[in-house]
Write a structure and sequence with these properties.
3 strands; about 10% strand; 6 helices; about 50% helix; 3-stranded antiparallel β-sheet
């Protein structure tokens, strides 16, 4: 089964069409590479080469490519602001419960995105306690919390913002990102 690249029409405040076009092209590469790796690994298994170092390395690489594809889909889906987060909604109330206030959560989420390195800032929900927490994910496949559900995903690799902002202006990008969060989509992921 092959994956197909999705498309989004986004009109974002503070993030240009040129920036998004670069990002969409990168996403397309993850889809292409995921399909290519699945095909190659499948053929190696059929050929009796599933227990070789070459196949093992391809399987490791598949995690990077596949997660790159899926995280970008989450990322683009949670953009295109339609309305601020409802203060009467369950997500807002849970953020208050977990962090004391929305503002404390937002500061922590932004600070997570400002951590040194390349990766992702992701707000996850613990499936057991239903608590929300912000985490740094290195690369695409390193740092995920097993079983936790991604609720809000922010890409903080340079390709996400350096067309519009200098590499040293990640904080400006994060502010633009936060101004474009589609809280309806994010709230539907919560629960």
């Amino acid at each position: 089964m092959a994956y197909s690249a999705r498309s989004w029409t986004l009109n974002l405040k503070g993030l240009s069409k040129d920036q998004l076009d670069v990002h969409f092209a990168l996403y397309q590469g993850y889809v292409t590479n995921t399909n290519r790796l699945n095909d190659t690994i499948g053929q190696m298994i059929k050929d009796g080469k599933g227990n070789t170092p070459d196949c093992a390395e391809l399987k490791r690489r598949l995690g990077f490519e596949y997660n790159g594809m899926v995280l970008h889909e989450y990322y683009f889906d949670n953009l295109q602001s339609t309305a601020p987060l409802s203060k009467d909604g369950a997500l807002y109330k849970k953020l208050q419960e977990c962090y004391g206030s929305y503002e404390t959560w937002e500061a922590d989420f932004k600070n997570t995105g400002l951590m040194r390195g390349i990766g992702w800032a992701i707000m996850f929900q613990d499936p057991n306690t239903k608590a929300l927490s912000n985490h740094w994910i290195g690369d695409h496949e390193v740092g995920h919390i097993a079983g936790f559900k991604p609720i809000l995903i922010m890409d903080v690799w340079e390709h996400a913002y350096t067309v519009d902002f200098k590499a040293t202006e990640r904080a400006k990008y994060i502010d633009a990102f936060m101004g474009n969060v589609n809280w309806d989509t994010v709230s539907k992921r919560f629960g």
